[in-house]
Amino acid sequence: MGILTTLGSVLDMVEDNQDVLYHIEEQVRRVIKSVLDRGQIDYYEEVLALANSVITYSISEPMWEIFFDIHKLAISQDGIVFVDLMPVLHSYLTVDTDGFLARPERLRAFIEIAVNMFNEDMEENDQVHAAKLLECLILECQGKINNLVPDLIQLIFTRLHQPIEDCRTLKPALLLVVIAGLYYDTDMFVNLLPQLQPHGINTLNYLVNELLSLAHCLEGVHDRKMVIIGLCTMARLSATHRPTLIDEKAQQINELLVALLIGLQKAMKIKAENRLANEKESDIKETEEEVGRDEDLADSEDEIDEDILEYLETLAEHQNKKGRTGSDAQTFESGSTSTSDSWDEDSMEAYYTPIDNDETADVFIFYKETLDALKASNEKLLLSMTTCTNSEKQVVLDGVLRVCEQRMSLAKSKKVEKQGGYAFKVDAPVPDTFNFAAKNSNL
């Protein structure tokens, strides 16, 4: 265990230095390979964390070989804990998505790992994480896996209609995969509806009803964003394809959207505060480290190279396996905002997707644009959604709309800033004379 701890410490120290990571990759990879090949179960968690650190910036061909070693273990279920797999699998997907998709066998292996978790003998906690993995895949590969999305969505609906012990955790995770499919390609999803079992063309009504029922289980930033996107997308559909429940429960749906946006604001604030606190703590630790740690690191590289495999030979084969559970996974618990919206690097919030980039998916703007679209195409539905039963609800709605408008203005300002500011015609001819006496009705 000592050498693994040392390697972990080394990688922690150089995590921000891509060049150093590149130079020590082979030594670390040999350790990972040895542990996986020897089936040293007690050290799987540690070597998976090492693998995740090594592929922080890029993924070499030898590290793709490690990916297939991980795949074999995951499929065989030989002592591996799926929760431990999540970070490194997410990195393989997101660090180099083009490289991931360039070789079909990589995508097949990735999907097989996730789908394998939906066997009936698997724990629901593993299935929650597998659902998250599929959601990340669909969102990350938008427009690039058209032939796979229909089967993945059907798999999720099949699981949704099998017994679920804890509807507060697994069911919301499964529904988010469905929303990811709807977001991936709305037209494709709508065309797929007649084929989806068991609800067929009523699938979207089922989705709306489930979201209304499980809204109290939602927490965090990402999950709220996804549900807002899902409901707004369905509200924007033409009358032919729009689920009837959108019209029948328009007011309830809008009240849910408003509540989600308010909860999202609070969750975003908590997430930002936690990040700042973590950064501050990290800065304090860095100031306390020894000044000469870079020299120590340079010396240790040779030692690792010489001793690493020999050390692994002596690792105990029959130690008691360290107790590990999926307790670090974020659950959809109800309760006060301060607890249910807590965030750390081990929570589901850590598995970043394109949806989590506010510049490309600002749901406050998306909500306001949805209302604007309805104003142009379906004023009756807009009125049904935004009519409030009392003045208190009206005040809340008006407050949310102000925030939406502020974010729209901010987004426009950022766009102008990225373009280099407002455009002025520098080549415009300078007039020979200036007529300051010209009439102007506005003055």
TrEMBL record:
Q: Importin-7/11-like TPR repeats domain spans which residues? A: 44-294
Biased composition, class Low complexity, residue ranges: 331-341
Region of interest: Disordered: 277-300, 319-344
Localisation per UniProt entry: Cytoplasm
Q: Where's it mainly located?
A: cytoplasm
Q: Which Pfam families match?
A: TPR_IPO11 (PF25758)
Keywords of this protein's UniProt record, alphabetized? Cytoplasm, Protein transport, Transport
Q: Looking at the UniProt record for this protein, which Gene Ontology cellular component terms does it annotate, in alphabetical order?
A: cytosol; nuclear envelope
Q: Name one GO biological process term.
A: protein import into nucleus
Q: Which domain of life is it from?
A: Eukaryota
The biased composition feature labelled Acidic residues covers 286-300
* Protein's name according to its UniProt entry: Importin-7/11-like TPR repeats domain-containing protein
Please tell me the species this chain comes from: Wuchereria bancrofti
